[in-house]
Amino acid sequence: MTWKPSPASRRRPLAMAAALVLTALVGGACHTAPPLPPPREGFAITDKFFDVKSVGIKSFLLLGYRSALWRSDDGGKTWKKLTAPTRRNLTRLAFFDGKLGWGVGHEGIVYKTENAGESWTEQKSGTKNALFDLSITGAQSVWAIGDVSSILHTTDGGNTWTAQQKSDGTPGLDLSMIGVREDMTLAISDPIFYGISCVDDKTCFVVGEFGQIRMTTDGGKTWGAGHGGLLGGKTIYRDVMSMPTFLCVRARDAQHAVAVGTYGAIASTSDGVNWTWNQVPGNAPLYDIRALPDGDYVVVGASGAVLRGNPESGWKSADVPAGVFTWLSASDFDTAGHGVAGGGHGLLLTTGDFGKKWEWKANG
Question: Count H helices, E strands: the chain?
Answer without folding.
Answer: 2, 28
